[in-house]
Amino acid sequence: MKGYSIDKFPEKHARSRIREEDISVKDAVNIAHFLRGKKLESAKDILDNVMAKKTAIPYFRYLDSISHRKGIGPGRYPVKESKVFKKLLDDVSANAEFKGLSENLVIVSLSVSKGRMIKKFTPKAYGRAGAFFKDLVNLEVVVVEEE
Predict the structure, then answer these.
(1) Is residue 34 in a domain?
(2) Is the pLDDT of residue 119 over 80?
(3) How remote is the C-alpha of 11 from its chain's centroid?
(4) What is the number of domains present in the chain?
(5) Is residue 108 within 8 Å of 143, Cβ to Cβ?
(6) What average pLDDT does the segment 14-35 reach?
(7) Is 132 exposed, middle or buried (0-12, 13-18, 19+ CB in 10 A)?
(8) Burial of 113 (0-12, 13-18, 19+ CB in 10 A)
(9) Can you give the CATH number for the domain in which 139 is found?
(10) Sign (positive/negative) of CA torsion 64, 67, 72, 76?
(11) What is the average per-residue pLDDT within 18-32?
């Protein structure tokens, strides 16, 4: 992961990035899809409600055996991933405050990509070992001041 996923940044923007976090790629993709385009403060409130298990994140991808929630369809409460996204949004909020941007910030880009893969082994019977792979996740966000 060299740079950001967008090439041209808007005039008044703030950005932040978290690299190689140990969270689920599938849950992170669904959270990013849900929060993209929302206001920054409203996105933080949504993540607080997800961590309190009051609001579910609607899933649009990776829907195998995902239970339906009342009013939104298939969804879950990914608490661990929500904590990481909350940290990311707090970081970009601090960056925007440092740049002197106002409080009216909108998330224009929120992307998730796979990071480094860690190869691990689990012991099996008869002295064998089975490999399993752990994907790490890169997150990045760009917010713009709304007029």
Answers:
(1) yes
(2) yes
(3) 24
(4) 1
(5) yes
(6) 96
(7) exposed
(8) middle
(9) 3.90.470.10
(10) negative
(11) 96
Query: Is residue 95 over pLDDT 50?
Result: yes
Query: Cα(12)–Cα(103) distance, rounded to whole angstroms?
Result: 12
β-partners of residue 110 are 141
Separation between Cα atoms, residue 131 and residue 88, nearest integer Å: 31
Range of the domain at 19: 13-145
Q: How confident is the model at residue 147 (pLDDT cuts 50, 70, 90)?
A: confident
DSSP readout, 32-45?
HHHHTTSBHHHHHH
Of the chain, the percentage scoring pLDDT greater than 70 comes to 99
| Sheet order of strands, 13-21 included | 13-21, 129-145, 105-123
